[in-house]
Write a structure and sequence with these properties.
Elements (H helix, E strand, L loop, with lengths): L4 H19 L6 E8 L6 E7 L4 E6 L5 H10 L2 H5 L3 E4 L3 H10 L4 E4 L1 H28 L3
Helix pairs in contact: 2-4
Length: about 140
């Protein structure tokens, strides 16, 4: 179409703004919290999703600390924050502490992948300890 790059970018920005206007402001009752790695190294940003409407509603922070997570809660009005009933997250302490302080009415649910990982680690520890405990008995029966 022989359009200038800046023109295409402006059209794209207008389209994205229309989509945001159609979606309306986020009023989540159930949110999901996760982090993504950006750039090289261990630089993270937090992503918050509306679990009911199945869409991202916030991307921010400068890392995955409580202070960064608090920025999400500060970005939404108090009545909307009070309406959050469920927070799904990994077992990251900073996320849990921020949710408990900023949305104390919400139930916290840990995602199954992290729960299963911890259960597998615990099972491995028990298995190794039992093998070490029984190794002298096993050696008696070659």
């Amino acid at each position: 179409m022989d359009l200038d790059w800046d023109t295409v970018k402006e059209i794209d920005k207008l389209y994205m703004q229309e989509q945001l206007d159609l979606a309306g402001p986020p009023t989540p009752t159930a949110i999901g919290v996760d982090e993504i790695s950006v750039g090289p190294g261990h630089s993270y940003r937090i992503v918050v999703s509306d679990r009911i409407r199945k869409r991202a509603i916030w991307f921010g922070g400068s890392d995955r600390t409580e202070a960064s997570m608090d920025l999400f809660y500060a970005s939404i009005p108090t009545p909307i924050r009070a309406g959050i009933r469920l927070v799904v997250m990994d077992m990251w302490k900073a996320f849990r502490n921020s949710a408990a302080r900023n949305a104390p009415q919400a139930k916290i649910v840990y995602d199954k992948f992290h729960v299963i990982r911890h259960l597998n680690d615990a099972l491995d520890t028990v298995r190794k300890n039992e093998y070490r405990r029984l190794e002298p008995v096993i050696d008696l029966f070659p």
